[in-house]
Design a protein that fits this description.
Number of helices: 20
Structural class: mainly alpha
Number of domains: 2
Helix content: 55-70%
Order of helices and strands: HHHHHHHHHEEEHHHHHHHHHHHEE
Strand order of the largest sheet: 1-2-3
Largest sheet: 3 strands, antiparallel
Shape: globular
Distance between the termini: 58 Å
Strand content: under 5%
């Protein structure tokens, strides 16, 4: 159709067309091709030079990584037209005597052997990744795009066949008469695709022990990637058939409900960086699988969730992480689900679950028989989902934490019921029974703190809500510190647990001091009446009043009445309070950075803690300098998650 033509069918008149345009349906123009977008027809059997093929193979990786970044297949992988003409590359389907004019610089095998194997590997990698992504640990459309547009990803082709084709391509290249440099460049790209296919195949294996094969495959991928990066490809000259291999508007020919949106392929160096990040995600999975504490997983996840300027891991990596931690009642591929119950008490209270069970069995005075199965199932559910939530996308994790706080309250209530039916006289047993509900309470306080602070990271708070958020976090942390100090004086855990509690008390104390300082700094900017403040609080923190039956109830976490907040807002010497608490926070953070003490986490997690504390030192020092400067130009606070997820930057 020309640009000024209109095609009408029975029952579809000009008024209907005008209505569609008025609605703004983006698919109305999906078939329209402007003059500047017109290209020569694509010939899948056009012979290629080795350097042209290298460029095509590199851009294939760009399409793949763009799909892993959350775009659709029709916008990325399917823009490679060889995907839709794969049968034309099959040497068995080519007519005898093809090509009619052989070119020694452009051997046919570059198409039928090397390029065909590379396309097969690309589609198989996408198929294997699609299988992992579709395990419902992450969310379609929200985290990734599952639509295949009725195009085959070689679902029925065994991985062994694809690997065989890649091996055939390597053998042909070694025996070919191509220049040595070109053979090595092509071979490195084929080997990278082969190792990547094997790695993705490990990810979908039903046998969790197969994950042990990932480290050598990851190292092989990194070695091949390094060799590829040392021999970068060059963009073909104008008129090259390689430039026609990609059509960003190919979705107009596919079965898709998504309007056409051209996605520009990134620079090749960015592609290799993304692939390297994906490979190092496998390294993180392997590292955490070989740890022996829940705290290591939580610290590792917290580092990713809290660190500024750190990219969110790929959806594929986040799915792998969740499956590696808990899958089919197996923890980390080696422990039964009951191991979570043991670690829950050991890492929270420093007391083994077996010792707690002995106290309950020997001192049980309830009317009904002692039954711990429900409590154990509850702990397994809460613990596994809490750890896995670190690898949700940030908004999804925030919603999960809001729901989990109800489960933690139910667990705390269950422990209170158990404690009421136990009669003990041994002082240590008395202390342990008293600490049972507080174990759930500590997790609940941690979750509440993360929910509120994540609001800063996701830029949810209006300016008048920020002081209230900092004020509430400070009171929640105060309860957490009091609880840790109480348990430290009552219980007698091992030395590592004591060191862990000391670290937590110092870290939480510095965090509380910074929150109080920022509350004092931001309070003068608010002017809310008590009734407005109450409405804002109930709307923003309704999750604090949630219950299992969905009705409003008493708050799940105790906090001072809002009248105290109003009094603090009106009576506090804001500048003096901010200055003193910034100074206190700096002292405590400096101790965390300078003192390397052992904890229940591994060395890598300890380094992550120190790095995060070092970042807080810089942020707090800048805020402290701003508060201390009585004269000079005016300064303003600017909340930017790329600077820090919780605390503001200071701008002139």
């Amino acid at each position: 159709m020309a640009a000024d033509e209109v095609l009408l069918t029975d029952g579809f008149v000009l008024m209907d067309a005008m209505s569609a345009f008025e609605i703004g349906e983006p698919r109305m123009d999906s078939g329209m091709i402007l003059e500047e977008d017109k290209k020569p027809p694509f010939d899948s059997t056009a012979l290629l030079l080795p350097e042209e093929l290298c460029w095509i193979m590199d851009r294939m990786f760009a399409c793949e990584m763009l799909w892993h970044s959350g775009n659709t297949l029709s916008q990325t992988v399917y823009t490679l037209l060889y995907v839709h003409e794969l049968q034309d590359l099959n040497p068995d389907f080519l007519p005898a005597g093809w090509p009619p004019n052989p070119d020694p610089d452009r051997p046919l095998e570059l198409l039928t052997v090397v390029l065909r194997a590379s396309v097969l590997g690309l589609l198989k990698c996408c198929d294997l990744a699609w299988r992992e992504l579709s395990k419902r640990r992450i969310y379609d459309i929200e985290d990734w795009q599952s639509e295949k547009s009725e195009v085959s990803l070689l679902e029925s082709v065994p991985v062994s066949i694809v690997l065989q084709r890649l091996d055939d391509a390597c053998r042909w290249l070694r025996a070919s008469s191509l220049p040595a440099e070109q053979k090595e460049a092509l071979s490195d790209r084929i080997l990278l695709r082969k190792h990547l296919t094997r790695l993705f195949n490990v990810g979908v294996s039903e046998n969790l022990e197969d994950l042990g094969m990932a480290p050598p495959l990851m190292r092989a991928n990194l070695d091949a990637l390094q060799r590829v990066r040392t021999r970068p490809s060059t963009t073909p000259q104008e008129g090259s058939p390689a430039l026609l291999a990609f059509d960003p508007r190919v979705s107009r020919q596919l079965h898709t409900v998504i309007p056409i949106r051209v996605v520009d392929l990134p620079e090749q160096t960015t592609v290799w960086d993304s692939l390297e990040r994906l490979l190092y995600g496998w390294a993180d999975v392997d590292y955490l699988r070989n740890t022996d504490t829940i705290a290591s997983w939580k610290e590792f996840g917290s580092y990713w969730a809290w660190s500024p300027r750190r990219e969110l891991p790929f959806a594929y990596t986040r799915s792998l992480m969740q499956g590696a931690f808990y899958e089919k009642r197996i923890v980390m591929g080696q422990y039964p689900a009951e191991w979570l119950v043991q670690q829950y008490f050991l890492e929270t209270l420093g007391v083994s679950y077996d010792y707690i069970c002995d106290i309950l069995v020997t001192s049980w005075a309830g009317r009904d028989e002692l039954a711990l199965e429900d409590v154990e199932r509850h702990i397994i559910k809460i613990t596994s989902q809490n750890v896995q939530s670190f690898w949700y996308n940030p908004p999804r994790r925030r919603r999960h934490l809001m729901k989990s706080i109800i489960d933690l309250q139910a667990l705390q209530d269950a422990f209170d019921v158990l404690k009421a039916d136990v009669v003990v006289s041994n002082p240590r047993s008395v202390h342990i029974m008293a600490a049972l509900p507080e174990a759930a309470n500590m997790w609940k306080l941690t979750v509440a703190r993360e929910i509120i602070l994540s609001g800063f990271q996701q830029d949810l708070y209006a300016p008048h809500e920020r002081p209230l958020a900092y004020w509430l976090v400070a009171h929640i942390i105060d309860q957490h510190i009091y609880l840790l100090e109480t348990l430290r004086s009552l219980l007698m855990p091992g030395i590592l647990m004591k060191l862990e509690w000391e670290y937590q008390i110092t870290f939480l104390g510095s965090l509380q001091a910074m929150c109080i300082a920022l509350y004092s700094s931001t309070t003068p900017t608010t002017s809310l009446s008590p009734s407005q403040l109450s409405l804002i609080f109930r709307r923003r923190y309704k999750w604090l009043f949630a219950s299992n039956n969905g009705k409003s109830s008493e708050p799940l976490i105790h906090f001072p009445p809002l009248s105290n907040y109003i009094e603090d807002m009106e009576n506090a010497e804001h500048k003096i309070v901010a200055r003193s608490h910034h100074t206190l926070a700096q002292e405590m953070l400096s101790r965390l950075v300078e003192t390397q003490s052992e904890t229940i986490c591994g060395d890598k997690e300890a380094e992550m803690r120190t790095e995060f504390a070092r970042g807080l030192v810089v942020v707090n020092a800048k805020l402290m300098e701003s508060v201390n400067s009585l004269d000079g130009p005016a300064r303003a606070l600017r909340w930017d998650p790329s600077y820090h997820p919780w605390f503001p930057d200071v701008t002139r």
